[in-house]
Structures are given as structure tokens and as C-alpha cells.
Write a structure and sequence with these properties.
With 168 residues, the chain is mainly alpha-helical. 75% of the residues lie in helices and 0% in strands. The structure holds MU-OXO-diiron. The site of MU-OXO-diiron has 7 residues, from helix 2, helix 3 and helix 4.
Length: 168
């Protein structure tokens, strides 16, 4: 196989740009969850701490999945600069609300890339993104359930609410 054919990209160029933006978004989410893990760690909120350390790892894995996908398909993955990570939080509930908001933004972004891939007949990206669409629905559901728990346990001590939170 000659070099020109071997290095041909199977991803549409504009889709690749969106995927590189998505890498940055996932890495920002990872850094944001790490800040949340630290807040929980300092307050001995053990289950929330474990959840956010794990979530930070997962977001990095998501970024890496897309990163490797781009390079494996002849494109150029870009290592992002992560800025504007918030480390100040008002409460544990505010952290979970922010998490849900962040996940909804990621879901919207993934769907936007999925639509673009479909329009451009970029089937390889569309298939890769199917996993992310399912994953996002699960992540949104996880944070919605935790926020519901705060409503159900209103008035209870924070550590008791934390004990009811599962990282899965
Ligand atoms: Fe990878 Fe939770 O967004």
C-alpha cells in the first residue's frame, strides 16, 4: 500500500475539528471532577469523594478514546490546554447540580458531532459516537438520581446523605 493511501483520513475534516473540541471538553470535565473530588475529600465525604475521583478518571478515558480514534483514522489529535477550572463550591448539592449541567452540555455536544458525522456520511465517527450517546444517558441518569436523593433526604445531615450515594 502506498503512503498516500495509508495516511488518507477516514474522518471528515470538520468532524475531526469537532472531535478535537470534544477532547478538550472531556479533559475539562475531568479537571472539574478532580476539583470536586478535592472539595469532598477535605470534608470527609467519602462516597462523593470516591465518585468524583472515579469520574475524573472516566472523563480522561473518554478523551483518550476520541484522541486515539482520530489518530487511528489518519487524523491529527490535539492535546488540549485546560483552563478555567472552578475549585470553589457552595455546597455538595451545588456540586451535583453542576455535574448534571456539565453532563447535559457534553451530551448536547456529542449529539451535535453525531449529526454532523451523519450529514457528511462519516460512518466511522457515527459508529464510534454511538457508545458515547449511551454513556451520556447513563451519566445524566446517575446525577439526576443523586439530586433526587437530596430532595428525599432534605434536612438530614450531609454525611448521612453522602453515605447513601453510590459511585456506580
Ligand atoms: Fe465524558 Fe461525562 O462526559
Amino acid at each position: 500500500m502506498n503512503t498516500a493511501i495509508r495516511t488518507q483520513m477516514s474522518i471528515h475534516t470538520e468532524v475531526m475539528d469537532l472531535l478535537n473540541n470534544q477532547i478538550a471538553m472531556e479533559m475539562h470535565a475531568s479537571a472539574s471532577y478532580l476539583a470536586m473530588a478535592s472539595w469532598c475529600d477535605q470534608r470527609e465525604l467519602l462516597n462523593s469523594k470516591a465518585l468524583f475521583y472515579e469520574q475524573a478518571e472516566e472523563e480522561r478515558e473518554h478523551a483518550m478514546k476520541i484522541f486515539k480514534f482520530i489518530n487511528d483514522n489518519g487524523g491529527s489529535a490535539i492535546s488540549p490546554t485546560v483552563v478555567n477550572v472552578n475549585n470553589e463550591f457552595e455546597s455538595l448539592l451545588a456540586i451535583y447540580e453542576k455535574s448534571l449541567e456539565q453532563e447535559i452540555a457534553v451530551s448536547d455536544s456529542i449529539k451535535k458531532i453525531f449529526k454532523k458525522a451523519r450529514t457528511e456520511n462519516d460512518f466511522v465517527t457515527e459508529i464510534m459516537l454511538q457508545w458515547f450517546i449511551t454513556e451520556q444517558a447513563e451519566e445524566e441518569d446517575k446525577f439526576r438520581s443523586i439530586i433526587d436523593l437530596f430532595d428525599l433526604m432534605e434536612g438530614m445531615p450531609l454525611k448521612m446523605i453522602d453515605e447513601r450515594i453510590s459511585k456506580d
